[in-house]
Amino acid sequence: MDPCPFVRVTVGNLALKIPVASKPARSVVHPSSSPCFCKIKLNILNLPPQNAVVPCLPPDTQTLDNPATAATFHLSKSDLDRLTSKSIFASRLCLKISIYTGRRGTTCGVNSGRLLGRVSVPLDLAGTESKPSVFQNGWVSVGKGPNKGGSAAQTQFHLNVKAEPDPRFVFQFDGEPECSPQVFQIRGNIRQPVFTCKFSFRASADRTQRSRSLQSEQGSSRSWLSSFGSERERPGKERKGWSITVHDLSGSPVAAASMVTPFVASPGSDRVSRSNPGSWLILRPGDNTWKPWGRLEAWRERGGADGLGYRFELIPDTSGAGIVLAESTISLNKGGKFVLDLGSGSSNRLGPNSPGCSPRGSGDFGYGLWPYSMYRGFVMSAKVEGEGRCSKPAVEVSVQHVNCTEDAAAFVALAAAVDLSMDACRLFSQRLRKELCQQSDLVG
């Protein structure tokens, strides 16, 4: 499989040195008490701006001890072609950073932070799909000269801006997952079939969800599916038993996603709540059986705009607790991206608005998580459509995380589970398409 060229632009090593005014003044920023943040944007690409906290350092600081990544932008081959072609865009790409003091947020539509200054870093991305390039690394002056408080020194802002190759495998479902589609690998204008998917309903007695080619052993008849998912069988509104198996072109099963906890409407409502989510196991073949690789929980968020809330965790081979890698939301109306990105700086916090997340409560990533320290930087993304729209998930997987066909297939199965969760979390007052309903549901 040949990957597609991508480029990752990262901004990090942020810091501020604000001179101390010789005269006290109310308008002067006091680093010890005033939080600072910045907004980071690429000027001519349709990518959302990113926010990051900027630590303030004493004016006499000589060394910087803040290597964290603050923002990451991912550029596809089409983005690169547009920027490097002979057009009006070729010489205009730059990174714009606006630095503020005060707390983030808005009041009555007005930003609550006070602007300290702006920094612009020109970017020339020609050739960066094959070799890294550093555009800025060091201190720059911001603001309009001496502070009103009497200091002649200017505020100093430290940053590192670089671009690095980030090749990815790109996959596209040829239909909705519940319709058992083919999955194509995309490279430019080339579409090559690599997987087939089979959607089915898991019978209540078939809790181990084994494939015909994965023979069960006499001593391993225990159902580990039930140990990860709640086998609740409640009367009332529920969606359960969905399963999708990914096969390679020879017909061998190479990954699967199995709904192990039904999606159940909360008492007195028509929705799956965060307090009682449904869940999937993402499975990989091994030792003549299926082995759990990851667990996806999903629910319907409340709020001004309904969203699909999700949490994804890796499952260790041992009996240890799962390692949470992502917790975020996707718009149920517009759709969006499910993202595993362990290097997006300010987005590396578990929260409802972060696109990618760091592990929680397990020590520093890369040290306390063996053998999962191999998951670094961008891992994968899956783009899905909103409710009621035809969704053919597009999946991107970093080359560094694919060593075999089963690796790629596991991410494809995870993308299918995310897309199917959009349907599983639909209000129970709405009927699902026939492919998602068992015969008893259609009769009822």
From TrEMBL:
Residues 230-241 have a biased composition (Basic and acidic residues). It comes from the Eukaryota. This is Formin-like protein 18. InterPro entries: DUF1005. Transmembrane segments: none annotated. Pfam families: DUF1005. Residues 208-242 are annotated as: Disordered. The lineage of its organism: Eukaryota, Viridiplantae, Streptophyta, Embryophyta, Tracheophyta. It comes from Pyrus ussuriensis x Pyrus communis. Residues 220-229 have a biased composition (Low complexity).
